[in-house]
Amino acid sequence: MRHIILHFTIATGLFLGCTSTVAAEGVSQTDTVTAIPKLKSGFASRLSLGGYGEVAYTRNFFSDNVNRYSHAADYRNVPSHGRFDIPHVVVMIGYDFGKGWSFGSEIEFEHGGVESAVEIEPEEVGEFEQEIERGGEVALEQFWIQKTFFPQLNIRAGHMVVPVGETNMHHLPTEFFTVYRPEGENEIIPCTWHQTGIEVWGHAGSWRYEAMFLAGLNSLNFSKDRWINGGAASAFEFSPANKYAVAARIDNYSVKGLRLSVSGYYGHAFNNTLMADNGKYKDVKGAVAIGSFGFDYRNSGWIWRGNLDYGHLSDADIISAYNRGQSSSSPYKRTHVGKGAWTAGTEAGYDILRLFHSKTNPDSKLYLFGRYEYYDAYIPTVNAPTYTWTERHRIAAGINYYPLKQIVIKAEFSERFMHKEYNNEPSVSIGVAYAGFFL
Protein backbone atom coordinates (compact mmCIF):
# COMPACT_ATOMS: atom_id res chain seq x y z
CA MET A 1 0.00 0.00 0.00
CA ARG A 2 1.54 3.27 -1.12
CA HIS A 3 0.30 5.44 1.68
CA ILE A 4 -1.30 4.59 5.00
CA ILE A 5 -3.05 7.03 7.29
CA LEU A 6 -4.57 5.86 10.52
CA HIS A 7 -7.09 8.48 11.47
CA PHE A 8 -8.78 7.91 14.81
CA THR A 9 -11.55 10.41 15.53
CA ILE A 10 -13.48 10.94 18.70
CA ALA A 11 -16.54 13.04 17.96
CA THR A 12 -19.49 13.74 20.15
CA GLY A 13 -22.72 15.44 19.15
CA LEU A 14 -22.66 19.01 20.34
CA PHE A 15 -25.07 19.22 23.28
CA LEU A 16 -28.28 18.10 21.55
CA GLY A 17 -27.53 15.09 19.42
CA CYS A 18 -25.54 13.14 16.99
CA THR A 19 -24.93 15.37 14.01
CA SER A 20 -25.87 12.73 11.48
CA THR A 21 -29.32 12.41 13.06
CA VAL A 22 -29.68 16.16 13.36
CA ALA A 23 -28.76 16.76 9.73
CA ALA A 24 -31.18 14.11 8.56
CA GLU A 25 -33.98 15.84 10.46
CA GLY A 26 -33.28 19.18 8.81
CA VAL A 27 -31.52 20.93 11.68
CA SER A 28 -28.04 22.37 11.24
CA GLN A 29 -25.03 21.44 13.34
CA THR A 30 -24.99 24.96 14.72
CA ASP A 31 -28.31 24.30 16.40
CA THR A 32 -26.69 21.42 18.26
CA VAL A 33 -24.06 23.85 19.53
CA THR A 34 -26.31 26.74 20.40
CA ALA A 35 -29.57 25.24 21.58
CA ILE A 36 -29.20 23.87 25.11
CA PRO A 37 -31.99 21.38 25.90
CA LYS A 38 -35.08 22.53 27.75
CA LEU A 39 -34.60 20.97 31.17
CA LYS A 40 -36.79 20.37 34.18
CA SER A 41 -34.58 20.48 37.27
CA GLY A 42 -31.31 19.35 38.77
CA PHE A 43 -27.72 20.37 38.09
CA ALA A 44 -26.81 17.20 36.18
CA SER A 45 -29.81 17.48 33.88
CA ARG A 46 -28.90 21.08 33.06
CA LEU A 47 -25.30 20.23 32.19
CA SER A 48 -24.18 19.14 28.70
CA LEU A 49 -20.79 17.56 28.03
CA GLY A 50 -19.42 16.49 24.67
CA GLY A 51 -16.46 16.76 22.35
CA TYR A 52 -14.64 15.34 19.35
CA GLY A 53 -11.10 14.54 18.34
CA GLU A 54 -8.85 13.17 15.63
CA VAL A 55 -5.66 11.11 15.66
CA ALA A 56 -3.83 10.26 12.44
CA TYR A 57 -0.92 8.35 11.05
CA THR A 58 0.06 9.48 7.56
CA ARG A 59 2.21 8.06 4.81
CA ASN A 60 2.65 10.57 1.98
CA PHE A 61 4.31 9.75 -1.33
CA PHE A 62 5.87 13.14 -1.96
CA SER A 63 8.56 15.30 -0.41
CA ASP A 64 7.92 17.36 2.70
CA ASN A 65 10.91 19.63 2.00
CA VAL A 66 10.15 23.37 2.12
CA ASN A 67 11.82 23.76 -1.30
CA ARG A 68 9.71 21.14 -3.09
CA TYR A 69 7.92 23.83 -5.12
CA SER A 70 10.78 26.26 -5.75
CA HIS A 71 13.11 23.39 -6.81
CA ALA A 72 10.62 20.71 -7.79
CA ALA A 73 13.01 18.72 -9.99
CA ASP A 74 15.30 18.06 -7.03
CA TYR A 75 12.51 16.29 -5.16
CA ARG A 76 10.87 14.29 -7.92
CA ASN A 77 11.93 10.82 -6.69
CA VAL A 78 12.27 11.26 -2.93
CA PRO A 79 11.22 8.44 -0.56
CA SER A 80 7.82 8.55 1.04
CA HIS A 81 7.41 9.93 4.55
CA GLY A 82 5.06 9.27 7.44
CA ARG A 83 3.85 11.09 10.52
CA PHE A 84 1.61 10.74 13.53
CA ASP A 85 -0.69 13.63 14.34
CA ILE A 86 -3.57 14.60 16.61
CA PRO A 87 -5.28 17.30 14.52
CA HIS A 88 -8.12 18.11 16.94
CA VAL A 89 -9.28 17.08 20.38
CA VAL A 90 -12.19 19.19 21.64
CA VAL A 91 -14.08 19.30 24.93
CA MET A 92 -17.48 21.06 24.96
CA ILE A 93 -19.38 22.09 28.07
CA GLY A 94 -22.82 23.74 28.16
CA TYR A 95 -25.26 24.69 30.89
CA ASP A 96 -28.89 25.82 30.96
CA PHE A 97 -29.40 28.46 33.65
CA GLY A 98 -33.14 28.57 33.01
CA LYS A 99 -35.48 31.38 31.91
CA GLY A 100 -33.91 31.33 28.44
CA TRP A 101 -30.32 31.86 29.59
CA SER A 102 -27.65 29.34 28.59
CA PHE A 103 -23.89 29.03 28.32
CA GLY A 104 -21.64 27.17 25.91
CA SER A 105 -17.89 26.59 25.64
CA GLU A 106 -15.46 24.63 23.51
CA ILE A 107 -11.79 24.06 24.29
CA GLU A 108 -9.66 22.71 21.45
CA PHE A 109 -6.28 21.01 21.59
CA GLU A 110 -4.70 21.04 18.14
CA HIS A 111 -1.92 18.65 17.16
CA GLY A 112 -1.59 17.23 20.66
CA GLY A 113 -1.72 20.56 22.47
CA VAL A 114 1.45 22.16 23.83
CA GLU A 115 3.55 19.97 26.08
CA SER A 116 6.16 22.08 27.84
CA ALA A 117 7.85 21.62 31.17
CA VAL A 118 10.76 22.83 33.27
CA GLU A 119 13.27 20.03 33.80
CA ILE A 120 16.60 19.65 35.58
CA GLU A 121 19.38 18.64 33.21
CA PRO A 122 22.01 16.52 35.03
CA GLU A 123 24.45 16.88 32.14
CA GLU A 124 24.34 20.63 32.71
CA VAL A 125 25.20 20.68 36.45
CA GLY A 126 21.57 20.60 37.55
CA GLU A 127 20.57 23.55 35.42
CA PHE A 128 16.83 24.15 35.00
CA GLU A 129 15.82 24.04 31.34
CA GLN A 130 12.59 24.69 29.50
CA GLU A 131 11.68 21.64 27.44
CA ILE A 132 9.20 21.64 24.57
CA GLU A 133 8.11 18.02 24.28
CA ARG A 134 5.41 18.48 21.66
CA GLY A 135 4.20 21.34 19.52
CA GLY A 136 0.61 22.31 18.94
CA GLU A 137 -1.95 24.78 20.18
CA VAL A 138 -4.57 25.11 22.86
CA ALA A 139 -7.44 27.43 21.90
CA LEU A 140 -10.72 28.55 23.36
CA GLU A 141 -12.81 27.94 20.27
CA GLN A 142 -16.17 28.91 21.77
CA PHE A 143 -17.29 30.71 24.94
CA TRP A 144 -20.64 32.46 24.91
CA ILE A 145 -23.72 33.45 26.90
CA GLN A 146 -27.08 33.20 25.12
CA LYS A 147 -30.58 34.50 25.72
CA THR A 148 -33.37 32.64 23.93
CA PHE A 149 -36.60 34.61 23.52
CA PHE A 150 -38.28 32.14 21.16
CA PRO A 151 -37.06 29.84 18.35
CA GLN A 152 -37.02 32.69 15.85
CA LEU A 153 -34.85 34.94 18.04
CA ASN A 154 -31.73 34.06 20.04
CA ILE A 155 -29.03 36.56 21.01
CA ARG A 156 -25.57 35.32 21.83
CA ALA A 157 -22.41 37.19 22.89
CA GLY A 158 -18.89 35.85 23.31
CA HIS A 159 -16.46 33.77 21.29
CA MET A 160 -18.17 31.82 18.49
CA VAL A 161 -17.72 30.00 15.20
CA VAL A 162 -18.04 32.40 12.26
CA PRO A 163 -20.86 30.97 10.08
CA VAL A 164 -19.09 31.24 6.70
CA GLY A 165 -18.54 28.24 4.44
CA GLU A 166 -19.52 24.61 4.72
CA THR A 167 -16.53 23.33 6.68
CA ASN A 168 -16.76 25.90 9.47
CA MET A 169 -20.40 25.06 10.11
CA HIS A 170 -20.05 21.29 9.58
CA HIS A 171 -16.52 20.44 10.67
CA LEU A 172 -17.09 17.37 12.83
CA PRO A 173 -15.33 14.29 11.45
CA THR A 174 -18.67 12.54 10.93
CA GLU A 175 -19.82 15.33 8.58
CA PHE A 176 -17.49 14.62 5.66
CA PHE A 177 -16.27 11.45 3.94
CA THR A 178 -12.54 12.20 3.73
CA VAL A 179 -10.19 11.36 6.58
CA TYR A 180 -9.09 14.97 6.97
CA ARG A 181 -11.32 18.00 6.54
CA PRO A 182 -11.96 19.06 2.94
CA GLU A 183 -8.87 20.96 1.84
CA GLY A 184 -10.22 23.87 -0.18
CA GLU A 185 -11.96 25.90 2.51
CA ASN A 186 -9.48 24.66 5.09
CA GLU A 187 -6.64 26.27 3.12
CA ILE A 188 -7.94 29.70 2.14
CA ILE A 189 -10.10 30.85 5.09
CA PRO A 190 -9.74 30.30 8.85
CA CYS A 191 -11.00 26.83 9.75
CA THR A 192 -12.47 26.33 12.23
CA TRP A 193 -13.01 30.12 12.16
CA HIS A 194 -13.79 31.42 15.65
CA GLN A 195 -13.84 35.03 16.84
CA THR A 196 -15.40 37.20 19.53
CA GLY A 197 -18.57 39.17 18.76
CA ILE A 198 -22.32 39.27 19.11
CA GLU A 199 -24.77 37.20 17.09
CA VAL A 200 -28.48 36.97 16.39
CA TRP A 201 -29.85 33.65 15.11
CA GLY A 202 -33.08 31.74 14.83
CA HIS A 203 -35.17 29.34 12.77
CA ALA A 204 -38.74 29.35 11.50
CA GLY A 205 -40.33 26.69 9.34
CA SER A 206 -37.83 25.60 6.69
CA TRP A 207 -35.50 28.54 7.23
CA ARG A 208 -32.59 29.24 9.56
CA TYR A 209 -30.50 32.41 9.79
CA GLU A 210 -27.43 33.83 11.56
CA ALA A 211 -26.06 37.37 11.62
CA MET A 212 -22.84 38.20 13.44
CA PHE A 213 -20.89 41.38 14.27
CA LEU A 214 -17.22 40.73 15.05
CA ALA A 215 -13.69 42.09 15.00
CA GLY A 216 -11.99 42.36 11.62
CA LEU A 217 -9.10 40.18 10.47
CA ASN A 218 -5.44 41.19 10.63
CA SER A 219 -3.91 41.53 7.15
CA LEU A 220 -0.38 41.10 8.55
CA ASN A 221 -1.20 37.40 8.90
CA PHE A 222 -2.33 36.97 5.28
CA SER A 223 -0.07 34.95 2.95
CA LYS A 224 0.36 33.74 -0.61
CA ASP A 225 -0.20 30.05 0.14
CA ARG A 226 -3.19 30.32 2.52
CA TRP A 227 -4.71 33.71 1.62
CA ILE A 228 -6.54 35.05 4.73
CA ASN A 229 -6.39 31.75 6.66
CA GLY A 230 -4.22 33.15 9.47
CA GLY A 231 -6.02 36.48 9.70
CA ALA A 232 -8.11 35.61 12.76
CA ALA A 233 -5.03 34.76 14.85
CA SER A 234 -3.48 37.17 17.34
CA ALA A 235 0.06 37.15 18.70
CA PHE A 236 -1.11 39.01 21.80
CA GLU A 237 -3.16 38.12 24.88
CA PHE A 238 -6.11 39.85 23.22
CA SER A 239 -7.35 40.40 19.68
CA PRO A 240 -6.94 43.96 18.36
CA ALA A 241 -10.29 45.37 17.18
CA ASN A 242 -9.51 48.60 15.36
CA LYS A 243 -11.56 47.29 12.42
CA TYR A 244 -14.85 45.42 12.39
CA ALA A 245 -16.72 42.97 10.20
CA VAL A 246 -20.10 41.33 9.65
CA ALA A 247 -20.97 37.75 8.72
CA ALA A 248 -24.30 36.17 7.83
CA ARG A 249 -25.76 32.83 6.83
CA ILE A 250 -29.11 31.46 5.62
CA ASP A 251 -30.02 27.77 5.42
CA ASN A 252 -33.12 26.36 3.75
CA TYR A 253 -34.66 22.89 4.31
CA SER A 254 -37.77 23.15 2.11
CA VAL A 255 -37.00 19.99 0.13
CA LYS A 256 -36.93 16.81 2.20
CA GLY A 257 -33.36 15.62 2.69
CA LEU A 258 -31.84 18.77 1.15
CA ARG A 259 -30.09 21.69 2.84
CA LEU A 260 -29.17 24.72 0.75
CA SER A 261 -26.91 27.35 2.31
CA VAL A 262 -25.53 30.77 1.44
CA SER A 263 -23.14 32.71 3.64
CA GLY A 264 -20.98 35.80 3.41
CA TYR A 265 -18.46 38.00 5.18
CA TYR A 266 -17.31 41.61 4.82
CA GLY A 267 -14.78 43.53 6.91
CA HIS A 268 -11.66 45.70 6.84
CA ALA A 269 -8.34 44.09 7.77
CA PHE A 270 -5.52 46.61 7.29
CA ASN A 271 -4.04 48.25 10.43
CA ASN A 272 -6.00 45.93 12.68
CA THR A 273 -3.07 45.51 15.05
CA LEU A 274 -1.11 47.32 17.75
CA MET A 275 0.61 50.60 16.86
CA ALA A 276 -1.45 50.99 13.71
CA ASP A 277 0.08 53.20 11.02
CA ASN A 278 -2.49 55.91 10.33
CA GLY A 279 -0.17 58.19 8.40
CA LYS A 280 0.24 57.58 4.68
CA TYR A 281 -1.81 54.36 5.01
CA LYS A 282 -4.87 56.00 6.53
CA ASP A 283 -6.97 55.38 3.42
CA VAL A 284 -5.97 51.72 3.00
CA LYS A 285 -8.83 49.46 4.02
CA GLY A 286 -7.87 45.93 3.06
CA ALA A 287 -11.52 45.02 2.60
CA VAL A 288 -12.18 41.27 2.70
CA ALA A 289 -15.36 40.06 0.98
CA ILE A 290 -16.31 36.37 0.87
CA GLY A 291 -19.33 34.65 -0.62
CA SER A 292 -20.09 30.96 -0.16
CA PHE A 293 -22.73 28.49 -1.36
CA GLY A 294 -23.18 24.96 -0.07
CA PHE A 295 -25.57 22.04 -0.13
CA ASP A 296 -26.15 18.67 1.54
CA TYR A 297 -28.57 16.11 0.05
CA ARG A 298 -29.52 12.77 1.61
CA ASN A 299 -32.01 10.33 0.08
CA SER A 300 -32.35 6.60 -0.66
CA GLY A 301 -28.87 5.76 0.62
CA TRP A 302 -27.17 8.66 -1.15
CA ILE A 303 -25.29 11.55 0.46
CA TRP A 304 -24.16 14.36 -1.82
CA ARG A 305 -22.42 17.52 -0.57
CA GLY A 306 -20.75 20.47 -2.22
CA ASN A 307 -19.43 24.00 -1.83
CA LEU A 308 -18.36 27.00 -3.88
CA ASP A 309 -16.46 29.91 -2.27
CA TYR A 310 -14.94 33.07 -3.68
CA GLY A 311 -13.11 35.83 -1.82
CA HIS A 312 -11.69 39.23 -2.78
CA LEU A 313 -9.15 41.45 -0.99
CA SER A 314 -8.85 45.15 -1.82
CA ASP A 315 -5.47 46.92 -1.64
CA ALA A 316 -3.68 43.57 -1.96
CA ASP A 317 -0.66 45.19 -3.65
CA ILE A 318 -0.19 47.68 -0.79
CA ILE A 319 -0.70 44.97 1.83
CA SER A 320 1.89 42.74 0.12
CA ALA A 321 4.50 45.52 0.14
CA TYR A 322 3.68 46.47 3.73
CA ASN A 323 3.88 42.89 4.99
CA ARG A 324 7.15 42.17 3.23
CA GLY A 325 8.62 45.27 4.86
CA GLN A 326 8.11 43.96 8.39
CA SER A 327 11.20 43.22 10.48
CA SER A 328 12.37 39.63 10.79
CA SER A 329 11.59 39.75 14.52
CA SER A 330 7.90 40.49 13.99
CA PRO A 331 5.41 37.64 14.63
CA TYR A 332 3.69 38.26 11.27
CA LYS A 333 3.82 36.78 7.78
CA ARG A 334 6.16 38.55 5.36
CA THR A 335 4.86 37.34 2.00
CA HIS A 336 2.83 38.52 -0.95
CA VAL A 337 -0.93 38.07 -0.71
CA GLY A 338 -3.33 37.62 -3.60
CA LYS A 339 -6.23 39.87 -4.46
CA GLY A 340 -8.50 36.86 -4.35
CA ALA A 341 -8.89 33.13 -3.76
CA TRP A 342 -11.53 30.56 -4.51
CA THR A 343 -12.44 26.92 -4.07
CA ALA A 344 -15.05 24.45 -5.30
CA GLY A 345 -15.61 20.91 -4.12
CA THR A 346 -18.12 18.09 -4.15
CA GLU A 347 -18.36 14.60 -2.69
CA ALA A 348 -20.91 11.82 -3.05
CA GLY A 349 -21.36 8.46 -1.39
CA TYR A 350 -23.81 5.55 -1.60
CA ASP A 351 -24.63 3.03 1.12
CA ILE A 352 -24.17 -0.29 -0.67
CA LEU A 353 -25.55 -2.27 2.29
CA ARG A 354 -29.01 -1.09 1.21
CA LEU A 355 -28.69 -3.66 -1.57
CA PHE A 356 -28.67 -6.49 0.98
CA HIS A 357 -32.06 -6.70 2.68
CA SER A 358 -31.01 -9.50 5.03
CA LYS A 359 -28.42 -7.51 6.97
CA THR A 360 -28.74 -8.16 10.70
CA ASN A 361 -27.86 -4.66 11.89
CA PRO A 362 -30.15 -1.96 10.49
CA ASP A 363 -27.78 0.77 11.74
CA SER A 364 -24.80 -0.48 9.75
CA LYS A 365 -23.89 1.40 6.58
CA LEU A 366 -21.10 1.13 4.03
CA TYR A 367 -20.64 4.22 1.85
CA LEU A 368 -18.52 4.11 -1.27
CA PHE A 369 -17.54 7.71 -1.94
CA GLY A 370 -15.63 9.96 -4.26
CA ARG A 371 -14.56 13.58 -3.85
CA TYR A 372 -13.18 16.24 -6.18
CA GLU A 373 -12.06 19.73 -5.23
CA TYR A 374 -10.21 22.64 -6.74
CA TYR A 375 -8.67 25.60 -4.93
CA ASP A 376 -6.33 28.48 -5.60
CA ALA A 377 -5.10 30.50 -2.64
CA TYR A 378 -3.33 33.17 -4.67
CA ILE A 379 -4.82 35.24 -7.49
CA PRO A 380 -2.05 37.82 -7.99
CA THR A 381 -2.39 41.54 -8.52
CA VAL A 382 -0.95 43.27 -11.59
CA ASN A 383 2.87 43.10 -11.67
CA ALA A 384 2.97 40.73 -8.68
CA PRO A 385 4.94 37.47 -8.92
CA THR A 386 2.99 34.32 -9.76
CA TYR A 387 3.03 31.14 -7.70
CA THR A 388 1.24 28.51 -9.75
CA TRP A 389 1.79 25.81 -7.09
CA THR A 390 -1.01 27.43 -5.06
CA GLU A 391 -3.49 26.19 -7.71
CA ARG A 392 -4.44 22.56 -7.09
CA HIS A 393 -6.93 19.88 -8.07
CA ARG A 394 -7.53 17.05 -5.63
CA ILE A 395 -9.38 13.76 -5.92
CA ALA A 396 -10.20 11.22 -3.21
CA ALA A 397 -12.03 7.91 -3.23
CA GLY A 398 -12.72 5.36 -0.54
CA ILE A 399 -15.18 3.95 1.97
CA ASN A 400 -16.95 4.96 5.18
CA TYR A 401 -18.21 1.95 7.16
CA TYR A 402 -20.64 2.41 10.07
CA PRO A 403 -20.92 -0.82 12.10
CA LEU A 404 -23.05 1.23 14.50
CA LYS A 405 -24.58 4.66 14.21
CA GLN A 406 -21.91 6.14 16.50
CA ILE A 407 -18.83 4.59 14.86
CA VAL A 408 -17.33 5.05 11.40
CA ILE A 409 -14.25 3.45 9.85
CA LYS A 410 -12.72 5.36 6.93
CA ALA A 411 -10.29 4.47 4.17
CA GLU A 412 -9.29 6.59 1.17
CA PHE A 413 -6.81 7.18 -1.60
CA SER A 414 -6.20 10.81 -2.55
CA GLU A 415 -3.95 12.78 -4.86
CA ARG A 416 -3.25 16.46 -5.45
CA PHE A 417 -2.67 17.36 -9.07
CA MET A 418 -0.32 20.30 -9.60
CA HIS A 419 0.86 22.23 -12.64
CA LYS A 420 3.16 20.12 -14.82
CA GLU A 421 6.34 21.75 -13.49
CA TYR A 422 5.58 20.38 -10.00
CA ASN A 423 5.19 16.90 -8.56
CA ASN A 424 1.76 15.47 -7.81
CA GLU A 425 1.08 14.49 -4.20
CA PRO A 426 -0.62 11.10 -3.65
CA SER A 427 -1.55 9.50 -0.33
CA VAL A 428 -3.66 6.74 1.27
CA SER A 429 -5.66 7.12 4.48
CA ILE A 430 -7.32 4.85 7.01
CA GLY A 431 -9.38 6.22 9.90
CA VAL A 432 -11.83 5.55 12.69
CA ALA A 433 -14.41 8.04 14.04
CA TYR A 434 -16.72 8.05 17.04
CA ALA A 435 -19.76 10.26 17.68
CA GLY A 436 -21.86 10.14 20.83
CA PHE A 437 -22.84 11.74 24.16
CA PHE A 438 -21.02 11.98 27.46
CA LEU A 439 -23.77 13.86 29.32
Kindly describe this structure.
The protein has 439 residues and is mainly β. Helix content is 8%, strand content 49%. It contains six helices and 19 strands. It has helices at residues 19-24, 29-34, 43-46, 166-169, 183-188, 316-324; strands at residues 6-12, 47-60, 81-98, 101-110, 115-121, 127-134, 137-150, 153-161, 194-204, 207-215, 244-252, 258-268, 287-299, 302-313, 340-351, 365-379, 391-404, 407-417, 425-436. It has a 17-stranded mixed β-sheet that branches. Strands 5-6 form a two-stranded antiparallel sheet. A hairpin with a 5-residue loop joins β5 (115-121) and β6. The longest helix has 9 residues, at 316-324. The chain is globular. The relative contact order is 0.15.
List keywords for this structure.
single chain, 439 residues, mainly beta, two-stranded antiparallel sheet, 6 helices, disordered N terminus
Distance N terminus to C terminus? 40 Å
How many DSSP E strands?
19
The sequence of SSEs as H and E is EHHHEEEEEEEHHEEEEEEHEEEEE
Poorly predicted ranges:
1-40
Beta fraction: over 45%
Shape summary: globular
Sheet of most strands: 17 strands, mixed
Structural class of the helix and strand makeup? mainly beta
Radius of gyration: 23 Å
How many H/I helical runs? 6
Estimate the helix proportion, in percent: under 10%
Mean pLDDT over all positions:
85
Quick rundown:
This protein has 439 residues and is mainly beta.
What is the element layout, followed by pairings?
Elements lengths: L5 E7 L6 H6 L4 H6 L8 H4 E14 L20 E18 L2 E10 L4 E7 L5 E8 L2 E14 L2 E9 L4 H4 L13 H6 L5 E11 L2 E9 L28 E9 L5 E11 L18 E13 L2 E12 L2 H9 L15 E12 L13 E15 L11 E14 L2 E11 L7 E12 L3
